[in-house]
Amino acid sequence: MLLIKEIFETNRMIAENKLDVRTITMGISLRGCSHPDIKVFCKNIYDKITMTAKNLVQVGEDIEAEYGVPIINKRVSVTPISVVAESCKTDSYVPVAEAMDKAAKELGINFIGGFTALVDKHETEGDLLLINSIPEALARTERVCSSVNIGTTKSGINMDAVRRMGLIIKRTAELTAARDAIGCAKLVVFCNAVQDNPFMAGAFHGVGEGSSAINVGVSGPGVVKRALEDVRGQSFDVVAETIKRTAFKVTRVGQLVAQEASKRLGVKMGVIDLSLAPTPAVGDSVAHILEEMGIESCGAPGTTAALALLNDAVKKGGLMAAQHVGGLSGAFIPVSEDAGMIAAVERGSLTLEKLEAMTCVCSVGLDMIAVPGDTSAATLSAIIADEAAIGMINNKTTAVRLIPVPGKKVGDKVEFGGLLGYCPIMAVNSFKADDFIARGGRIPAPLRSLTN
Amino acid sequence: MKIVVTIIGQDRVGIVAKVSTAMADVNVNVLDINQNIMNGFFNMVMIADMGAAKISLKELQQKLGEVGKEIGVEIKVQSQDIFNVMHRI
């Protein structure tokens, strides 16, 4: 029989420590939708998405009410559009993004991911068309998310694509300048992108996936922080154990929700993504967990070690609680979406360089970082190249979601609203890498042994 | 389906009576009750079976929500599964 204290513990986690299921994301294959006429293609994908996911929001809300645990987002990811749209005879994929946006609105979901190209070695014509359509697509839609994979451990880094993405990010910022370059908040550049990620903006339904899948992203930074408050001053052995136990409990809830959603929607269960995903809400911060471990302000010496322990313990605790684990699975450190990170930037303890070091030991990368509007495309590309190199060499996913906000400089603030939060503009090293980025070509795939 | 009903609020006469009557009205069978009072705050957990209930979980949530409002306590109704998965392997 359940103990009264166990019941109150669960409800306290939900009510006070912001335990929630961050997202139920339905992956949908669009591989049957191809057509040479883009109008027919757009209708095909609209119909496919709205038919397959028509009950997603309702089922999510039912599960939320039944178990009393908030399910923050219900979302859809689709096959990379560059793959399924390539047979269209067209010079722009913007109408495809608009069809996705319309489908998302019809379903009542806040984001749809998959305006994606996978170009880790080279680009096809469809890939190039997609990449060139990104700025306008993100400017003309509200809910579409885009991602581009520019490298993998097995292929190396496509430096032509890296150079191009710097320009695309700049162009996207210009086209959405009136809204503080919000288009860039929906654009991720990946190395080692995963096929079953439920989290936006980088979600897409990989070509190795089935017709559809339910992937669930758990959360719970607040719950971990609260658990660590009880072991203040104790050794790291105790810290690691405490995080593992907490992650287990949090993940079991994610597993339950995934199982139920999969059963009720008649869609195969994909993976549980064991990520600690912060939100700008008070008490939902990854930075505050690191500070609870004894770091005065996130970014101070010791931060990378604290994050390494946290990331590893969350995975160890969560693994046993979930049937299948996948996605990004790691602690996220998006600056604008984490109240503790924002405060650390404002205090001056957290810099871009320290964030880069932190991404070596956690998921996912330089995420939701606003930089001065005059940051050049080549500098953005060089930052992408650095981050991709970390992913390539360490055999992990890394990503860059930078927002060069036109007209803003260091010290200014930008407000994206909602889950995207707000952010002080961060300083970027002002020395140039233009000649480095101008070279193009590929950085070869790395050696996988002799790995010191 | 087994459910967990949690009640939190200022202690007063008749909380248990009101809630259990409302549940009996719709044929929800109470299996276990656990309550204590800490610093004047009333905490109660009821485990009940909805197998023969006349209404759905959603409707029960609404009904008990109204009872809670009437007597000034917060009443939550959840499927027991969420507690089982979290605390039992």
The gist of it:
The complex is a heterodimer of chains A (452) and B (89). Chain A is an alpha/beta fold and 452 residues long.
Write the layout of secondary structure elements.
The complex is a heterodimer of chains A (452) and B (89).
Chain A (H helix, E strand, L loop, with lengths): L3 H12 L5 E8 L9 H15 L3 H12 L3 E8 L2 H4 L9 H14 L4 E7 L6 H16 L3 E9 L3 E3 H17 L11 E5 L20 E7 L2 H9 L6 H30 L3 E5 L12 H7 L10 H17 L19 H9 L4 H7 L6 E8 L4 H18 L3 E8 L7 E3 L6 E3 L9 H5 L3 E2 L9
Parallel strand pairs in A: 1-2, 2-3, 3-4, 4-6, 7-8, 9-10
Antiparallel strand pairs in A: 1-7, 4-5, 5-13, 6-10, 11-12
Helix pairs in contact in A: 2-5, 3-9, 5-6, 6-7, 7-14, 8-9, 8-10, 9-11
Chain B lengths: L1 E9 L4 H11 L3 E10 L2 E9 L7 H15 L1 E7 L1 H7 L2
Antiparallel strand pairs in B: 1-3, 1-4, 2-3
Helix pairs in contact in B: 1-2
Structure in words:
The complex is a heterodimer of chains A (452) and B (89). Chain A is built from 15 helices and 13 strands. Chain A is globular, with a radius of gyration of 21 Å. Chain A has 452 residues and is of the alpha/beta class. Chain A folds into 2 domains: 25-54 and 73-191, Anaerobic Ribonucleotide-triphosphate Reductase Large Chain; 216-437, Anaerobic Ribonucleotide-triphosphate Reductase Large Chain. The mean pLDDT of chain A is 95. Chain B has one domain (2-87): Alpha-Beta Plaits (2-Layer Sandwich), CATH 3.30.70.260. In chain B, 37% of the residues lie in helices and 39% in strands. Chain B is built from 3 helices and 4 strands. In chain B, strand 2 (29-38) and strand 3 (41-49) form a beta hairpin. Chain B is globular. The two termini of chain B are 19 Å apart. Chains A and B meet through helix 1, helix 3 and helix 9 of A and strand 2, strand 3, helix 2, strand 4 and helix 3 of B.
